[in-house]
Structure formats: structure tokens, C-alpha cells
Amino acid sequence: MIPKKVKSPFGVLPAPQNLHNPFSKHTITAEYRLRWKKVKGANSYNVYMSSDSIMAHKAYVTTATKTLAKVSAASLPSGTLQYFWASAVGASGESALSDVCSARNP
Questions:
Q1: d(Cα 96, Cα 85) in Å, to the nearest integer?
Q2: Other CB atoms within 10 Å distance of the CB of residue 10
Q3: pTM for this structure?
Q4: Distance between CA atoms of 63 and 98, rounded to whole angstroms?
């Protein structure tokens, strides 16, 4: 008997939505805090960063298991503007990237 292929229950994951930098009294110098909406079927999220808004210049910075990421920027001077993208990762692979979010290092 040939085993049946098990399909991912979610198929291709959509890109995370509403990526933003919620500045608050808890924001500390040399750290960017990012949030986004949960993607059904995602096991984790990859976060990418760039010094400009050109997606081709992005670099992977961290993986988050929740809809919050803290990105350390100790080597960047205060006031540095950075650009971020997030993707959802699940059984079917990595989603497309979210819309870009810009954030300034406090």
C-alpha cells in the first residue's frame, strides 16, 4: 500500500500584515521593537533589515516565534533610520515579505 501525501493544511502562507514599530516608554536605546499580525499556519517569522528601503539590500537579522521581534542595534548611532520586513515560516516554506516598515533608533 502506498502512503498518501499529507498536504499542508494552510498551503502557501500570506505575508505578515501591519508590520510596525510601536514606540513606547519601554523602547530602549539601541533596540528596534517590531510587531505584526499573526499569520495562521506560521511556526515562526523571519525578520530582515536594511539601511535603505530597497528590498534587494536586506539582510536577515532574527527569527521570532511570536508576533514581536527585538532587534539590537548597539553599533548604530542614536537616530539611525532602518527599514524592516518580516516573513512567515510554516510547513509549506517561507511566505513573501511584508510591506516595509521604517523605524528610527531612539
A1: 10
A2: 15
A3: 0.85
A4: 14
Q: What is the pLDDT along the chain (106 residues), one digit of tens a residue?
A: 565 554 555 678 999 999 999 876 556 777 889 999 999 999 999 999 999 999 889 999 999 999 999 998 888 888 888 999 999 999 999 999 999 999 887 7
Where along the chain do its domains lie?
Answer: 31-104
**Rounded distance between C-alpha atoms, residue 47 and residue 20, angstroms:** 12
Widest Cα–Cα separation across the chain = 63
Q: Give yes or no for a contact between 15 and 87, defined as CB atoms under 8 angstroms apart.
A: yes
What's the CATH architecture for 31-104?
Sandwich (2.60)
Q: Residue 37 has which C-alpha cell? A: 499580525
Distance between alpha carbon 33 and the CA centroid of its chain, in Å?
A: 11
The DSSP call for residue 20 is B
